[in-house]
Specification:
Largest sheet: 5 strands, mixed
Shape: globular
Structural class: alpha/beta
Distance between the termini: 15 Å
Order of helices and strands: EEHEHEHEHEEEEEHEHHHEE
Strand content: 15-25%
Number of strands: 13
Strand order of the largest sheet: 1-7-6-4-5
Number of helices: 8
Helix content: 25-40%
Length: 352
């Protein structure tokens, strides 16, 4: 028995927000004082570091659970399965449903429950639950789905990663330009086909790192102090990722028994282009190798950082041939990797 991704789907929001759209924003320092550089310079520096030209936001009428359902329907159709045969729905997100303009999140009922309802699944033995695991949530959901299948508790799981970060960003914070919205979903199931998940690795770092990402007040001190926004210590996250993600990737690869020369693609969380490139360089350096050209497909340039949605969306776009000059083929060895709030890191070695 092998455990494979048998179907995938994604939802790309319709609202395109370019870097130029931030020209009229009032960016502030964390103490509320005006940021000293003009917005044109801020966005230029931002692009040089992150590689992001555009990001996608959901339309005002959609919620995180809505776009998750849209991605899930595509994955179910792609796999050609009856949704009534799903044993688990694992929904990775971080902020629940936040309506446009609302100051509270809505997690009652869970978003996984809402997706099951929206899919009109009657089977009560299809268990639906949410996963809060930072940006690595979808990767961890796949790892859990594998564990359920290996344990004989499931044969088929739906794993979703979806987020609407545009609803939880402080528009006075330059970091808000990184974040975007999106959803990706996959069907994970037992199969007699060759390949599938070969190894996995997960770690949680909290002793010094727990609050590198956190909820905090707006940089605009006139805003309601009871309203909180996603905040991060960017430099600390960068240094943490460069230190720990390559190690997790290497540990996973070593467990799999696959040679690094046989890895065809690395699908890494689309957080920041420069950071991702540095992670790949350090990973290959551990094996005294140089990264092959084209090893790391990217979607961040046009889609931004949609947290848990980046990796499953990237996978779906690749299998559908929608990433320029990039493709996946049967038998290819790929490496999934992610890092995020928690601070969590994880990786999967997977054979197409």
């Amino acid at each position: 028995m092998n455990i494979k991704i048998t179907g995938s789907g994604s939802y790309i929001p319709t609202e395109i927000v370019s870097n130029k759209d931030f020209a009229q924003h009032v960016f502030l320092n964390d103490d509320g004082t005006p940021f000293p550089l003009p917005n044109e310079v801020i966005t230029e520096k931002f692009y040089d570091i992150t590689g992001i030209e555009e990001r996608r936001y959901v339309s005002d009428d959609l919620l995180t659970s809505d776009i998750a359902t849209l991605a899930a329907k595509k994955a179910i159709e792609d796999a050609g399965i009856d949704p009534e045969t799903l044993d688990y729905i694992i929904f990775a997100h971080n902020f629940g449903n936040v309506k446009k303009g609302a100051i509270q999140t809505d997690l009652l009922p869970s978003l996984a429950t809402r997706v099951k309802f929206d899919l009109r699944i009657k089977n009560p033995k299809c268990v639906a639950y949410d996963m809060l695991f930072g940006c690595p949530g979808w990767v961890e959901g796949v790892i859990q789905a594998q564990a359920f299948i290996k344990a004989g508790m499931a044969k088929r799981c739906l794993v979703i990663g979806a987020e609407t970060l545009s609803r939880v960003v402080d528009m006075h914070d330059r970091d808000s330009m990184i974040y975007s919205d999106g959803a990706g979903a996959t069907i994970i199931e037992a199969t007699e086909e060759a390949g599938g998940i070969l190894a996995h690795e997960t770690a949680t770092f909290t002793y010094d790192e727990a609050y590198y990402l956190f909820f905090g007040n707006s940089f605009n001190k006139t805003h309601d102090p009871d309203v909180r926004y996603i905040k991060m210590h960017g430099r600390k996250i960068y240094e943490f990722a460069l230190s720990q993600v390559p190690k997790a990737m290497a540990a996973c690869l070593d467990k799999s028994g696959v040679a690094i020369q046989d890895v065809k693609k690395i699908l890494i969380h689309q957080a920041n282009e420069k950071m991702d490139e540095a992670i790949i360089q350090r990973f290959y350096k551990l094996y005294k190798e140089t990264p092959p050209e084209g090893i790391m497909p990217m979607s961040i340039h046009k889609l931004g950082n949609s947290s848990v949605a980046t990796v499953p969306t990237l996978y779906d776009l690749l299998v559908r041939g929608q990433i320029e000059n990039q493709s996946l083929h049967k038998g290819d060895i790929i490496l999934f990797a992610s890092v995020g709030s928690g601070m969590n890191v994880n990786a999967i070695v997977y054979k197409m």
